[in-house]
Amino acid sequence: MASKSGRKVIVTCAVTGAIHTPSMSPHLPVTPDEIAENAIAAAEAGATVIHLHARDPQTGRPTQDPAAFQEFLPRIKQNTAAVINLTTGGSPHMSIEERLRPASHFKPEVASLNMGSMNFGLFPMLDRFQTFQHEWERQHLENSRDLVFKNTFKDIEHILKTCSGNGTRFEFECYDISHLYNLAHFLDRKLVTPPLFVQSVFGILGGIGPHPEDVMHMRRTADRLFGDQYVWSVLGAGRNQMPVASMSLALGGNVRVGLEDSLWAGPGRLATSNAEQVRIVRSLIEGLSLEVATPEEARAMLSLKGGHNVNF
User: Fold this and answer.
1) Count of beta carbons in the 10 Å neighbourhood of residue 180
2) Can you tell me the distance from the alpha carbon of 90 to that of 109, in angstroms, rounded to the nearest whole number?
3) Each residue of 154-167: pLDDT tens digit?
4) What distance in Å separates the CA atoms of residue 21 and residue 271, rounded to the nearest whole number?
């Protein structure tokens, strides 16, 4: 699917996530103020969609307590027109019921949905980061040696049925080829409806790699399974962020950046904000004579219900 001049590109920015820990970067947003400020600045820099997790403001530990999200969601909504996307991934260490709480309560336009169980190895980061402010950080990484991120067919169906009645649509996170086939299964059963927003994830240990052939394989497989019924986006983990984004842009796709996925803004250089990564990817987009989609254009492309139809 070739790109064409003037095509609109959806830029998602994932502001904090649950992978990186506070000791890894002083720029990782942790408090409600930091998360709100980073999200608003990312939107001002051009992010179309803001993907949000919450953290305990004292320890930086991921939390799915709706009260934590309530601290920043209204502020982001009031100060941006961006599409707000809430996680149902939470952290791989959480139960499905815990992970579902924010999306179920706040009824966002978009929620992320992981499309299969997988090993989720973060432990190699122990070789790069030696000292930690909080004991949970080391354990978080060490425990991933024996961690399966559980997303069974029952789990996925439960999230779909819980959120679909709220008009929430999904960012289907596909970490491997099998996840595309899982999504095709739910499409066959009519539990999901096009246009499907497929987010292909590259470079997580346990999922598909970031090689150009891997990116092409994901694209070809999604084209074959979904034809014109989907909108494709990619994220590359760590240093793969911008190379994978560039490949997606060349293949007619969309992009996701943000400190959830990568702490970097260049070789050995920490990104000072989420907005910095948005500006970098925006320069790639505009250098290819493409345009960043506005939030309203993204709402049309993804058939969203609109920012006024949420519970925050």
Assistant:
1) 24
2) 17
3) 999 999 999 989 99
4) 15
Residue 252: what residue type? G
Contact 55, 33 (CB under 8 A): no
Q: How far apart are CA 242 and CA 259, in angstroms?
A: 13
Q: CA separation (Å) from 124 to 21, 130, 139, 194, 271?
A: 14, 11, 13, 37, 21
Helix (H) or strand (E) holding 161, with range, is: helix 153-164
Q: Tally DSSP H helices, then E strands, for the chain.
A: 11, 16
Each residue of 221-259: pLDDT tens digit?
Answer: 999 999 999 999 999 999 999 999 999 999 999 999 999
Question: For the chain, which ranges sit under pLDDT 70?
Answer: 1-6
Residue with tokens 């394989």: 217
Residue of 135, 175, 10, 167 lying closest to 82 (CA atoms): 10
Rounded-to-10 torsion of CA 310, 53, 62, 161: 50
Distance CA 27, CA 238 (A): 15
Measured CA distances, 203 to 132, 238, 240 (Å):
24, 8, 7
pLDDT of residue 5: 53
Q: Which amino acid is at 287?
A: G
CB 282 within 8 A of CB 275: no
Residues 263 and 20 sit within 8 Å (Cβ to Cβ) = yes
Write the CB contacts of 118 (distance below 8 Å, at least 6 apart in sequence). Answer: 148, 149, 151, 175, 176, 204, 206, 207
Q: Quick one: pLDDT at residue 148?
A: 97
pTM of the predicted protein model: 0.97
The neighbour count for residue 49, using CB atoms within 10 Å, is 28
Distance of CA 17 to the CA centre of its chain: 8
Is residue 35 within 8 A of residue 63, CB to CB? The reply is no
Is the Cβ–Cβ distance between 298 and 305 less than 8 Å? no
* Residue-level pLDDT at 303: 98
CA–chain centroid gap for 64, Å, is: 16
The backbone torsions φ and ψ at residue 201, rounded to the nearest 5 degrees and listed phi first, read -110, 125
